[in-house]
Amino acid sequence: MRRQEAAWIGEQLRALEGEGVVLNLGSGSKRFRELSKPYIDREIFEPLARRGARIVHADLKSGEGIDISGDLFDPAVQARLRELQAGAVLACNIMEHLPSDCRERFPAMLDSVLPPGAVLVITVPYSYPYHADPIDTLYRPSPAELCARFPGYEVIEARTIESESYGDEFVAGGPLRMARKLLRMLFPFVRPKRWLSHAHRMLWLFRPYVLSAVVLRKPAR
């Protein structure tokens, strides 16, 4: 998740009233949210906790700070998610990592765990390099294409979010990190997927990363 993306999500959730339970799908661990990328917790979850929201983190893997672990397409996991009756569900940076058959089923899965009137926040890369986790299908939909996957839902917000360029990240890393990254380009045969991800980022050396972001509300009935 990018800094600008986290700030936007936090802003959208602060505009809502009475979200109660907030379900964060594909959450990653507590360390990821609070140490590796501390802006996620600072911009999104700390303000929600201060308002008294109950935050439930769900991920495929188990780990510290993950409340529900398992495959989102497992009926048993879905049943647990439905029981939460979440007022808001975050599904951020998930769809590009799903095989095409799972991606086609993903909107129906989300709909099945969302109670009527609940809010759904989705972000997906729009102009973004390859990043395997463990796969990247290069699914890069526009905000309008995301909204079209949820017919009948109210569109509260739909936009693109610009982030830094790879050049900004490259310079911010400092001379030693810059040298390591340049040296890494000479060894494509070492961990090829990681090398490809790194090499592809060079196309964003002077242009910003862009994400598609939507906030949708499920019909009350």
Features:
about 220 residues; alpha/beta; 7-stranded mixed sheet; 9 helices; Rossmann fold
Helix content: 40-55%
For CATH, the homologous superfamily is named as Vaccinia Virus protein VP39
Unreliable stretches covering 5 or more consecutive residues: none
CATH architecture: 3-Layer(aba) Sandwich
Under the CATH scheme, which class?
Alpha Beta
The overall average pLDDT, rounded, is 92
β-strand amount: 15-25%
Shape: globular
Major sheet characteristics? 7 strands, mixed
The total count of strands amounts to: 7
Count of helix runs: 9
Structural class from helices and strands? Answer: alpha/beta
Explain what this protein looks like in three dimensions.
This protein has nine helices and seven strands, in the order αβααββαβαβαβαααβ. The protein has 221 residues and is of the alpha/beta class. The protein has a single domain, classed as Rossmann fold (3-Layer(aba) Sandwich). β4, α5 and β5 form a beta-alpha-beta unit. The longest helix is centred in the middle third of the chain and has 14 residues.
In short:
This protein is of the alpha/beta class. The protein has nine helices and seven strands; from the N terminus they run αβααββαβαβαβαααβ. It has one domain (3-164, 208-217): 3-Layer(aba) Sandwich (Rossmann fold).
